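Input.
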Amino acid sequence: MEPPRRVARAIFRAGRYPVFSAYYAAVAANHRYELFAPTKRVDGARFRSYELVNKHGRDVLLRQLLARCGPDETVFDVGANTGVYALAVAAAEPAARVVAFEPNPAVCEQLRTNVARNEFGDRIDVRAVGAGDDSGVRPFYRSTYDELGSFDADNASAWEARVRDEMRVPVVRLDDLVGDGDVPPPDHLKVDVEGFGYDVLSGAETTLRRHRPVVYFEPHAVADADRDADAAAAFLRSLGYRLRVRDDAWVCEHDANRSET
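Output.
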């Protein structure tokens, strides 16, 4: 007989799937029909969104970003999801510019709906693309938990979720966008991409070397996340960045006293 604790854990996991699935279905319908957009508060920032709860309003990286972001600065929100970070920055610093990258087409539409609800279209530039180490097109796996959509099928099926479908989505190198003058260089770079953070950083190497934005990096407990996190940490340190861990998330600032390796 299995230990009672193991049985209880299995029952909990089995029950979690229908609850989470129902939540994401309700949120999708709320966005589609624009039914109810409750006010969210993050420190001094206030905005409205069609999420039913303020899921990421307590994220330590968001609070660190808000504490550092000033007027007229540019924030790259890579893995923007439905826009909690982008909306909070736009609300807190109306003169700041946010470029929000979200490759999942359905979630990107939810992001656009939230931006329109707050009339932040002049502050948030929404890009329906992923960021990576090469520009092109990649397979993307949509998850039954919208938040877990990923370029890796295993990541999209974490937490008892399932792969909903596969599609091909555009991916860009951040260096290409900045180098072409399509967007201004970032003062802040937030990366939350379900285990593909190193790809984002390596595609922004020139930007990191020249402009030294503060990097807010979210490691993930998903397939190959340890590989991704180790590679990302080594890469940032090689560029002269110092990593500070805040509740398992990283705030990375360039150390002017350290030479690049």
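Residues 48 and 118 are 6 Å apart (CA to CA).
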